[in-house]
Write a structure and sequence with these properties.
Helix content: 40-55%
Oligomer: single chain
Mean pLDDT: 94
Strand order of the largest sheet: 3-2-1-4-5-7-6
Low-confidence stretches: none
Strand content: 5-15%
Number of strands: 7
Radius of gyration: 20 Å
Amino acid sequence: MRRTNRLTELTYRLSQTARVGWFAAHYLAARRIGGPLTPEEEPDFRPSSSVPNRQDLTRELRRLFDTDLENIRNGIYAAPHDMVRNPVELIESSVRFLTDVPKVDRRRLDREYSEVKSQVSQGRYPNYFLQNFHYQTDGYLSKDSAEIYDFQVETLFSGTADAMRRQALVPVYNALKEKDQRRCRLLDVATGTGRFLTFVKDNYPRLPVAAVDLSPDYVSEARRTLRRWRDVLAVQANAESLPFAEGSYDIVTCIYLFHELPPKVRRTVARQISDQLAPGGTFVFVDSLQNGDIDNFDGLLEMFPVGFHEPYYTTYLDEDLTEMFGDVGLELETKTTAFLSKVVTFRKSARNSGI
């Protein structure tokens, strides 16, 4: 079991503090550059539920990083591989992000989120995908979008996105304990830029992994991100129709996808995920908090789709995940919160599998 030394722990604390400060500053800068939360012709938004105060947010943020460090101390996963970042790359990403902010803000205030529909051939993608989610430039369908996405997400979450993603490594660790990683397989559905898989491969370099995303530009970025590791397959495919044989994977992960799917599509994708899992396999779900997960946070969740184009988010907030995945043969095992995200683990029944 890996154990950390004091230098690693000190580096972790300093790097994560600097990370939060860096991205929080960009969030504040974006708010200053931008206009009001809603257009002038719309009434001011007032959430119907209570919102967290600064103390609530600070408590949950500290809990996230304390948990992250405790997992590292206990050898569940390694310290982040990029605690020391290239300053030139950071500055370049900062300039690109801040330059793009006025474009995003214009779409937000104009409530324009369908530009991408005129930029791609119709019929190649489902209609729900052809939107400028978050009002971001090009939606998910350009090289520029893929290259700036991780910086945008970290800014949105004030530098906590990677730490939230890393909590998915805990059920991965539990699933792989006492197993030969070379004989297991992991599938990451809606992989985006492949960021989560960098943490997987950093801890399990011999584990064969597959990455699937609907955007060809994001798949290309994932290939670039993961190029230093072997046994990586990155494929463009729709999560509604995954291109692998049933029962091909011991672990399936899915991070920040389901809140962007229409309710009916969620169930189709849930079925596909279940089909991909071998009997006894593990499904790791990471996505936004839902209503009732943390006291006083429901109002904050209400506000999210007001400032960001998230057309299916409101229905996601009350989605019964246990029932939805239970209907496709996945049994709830664990669930926990991680700041503004939740991590839920399901197991596919091993009955009639010979296990």
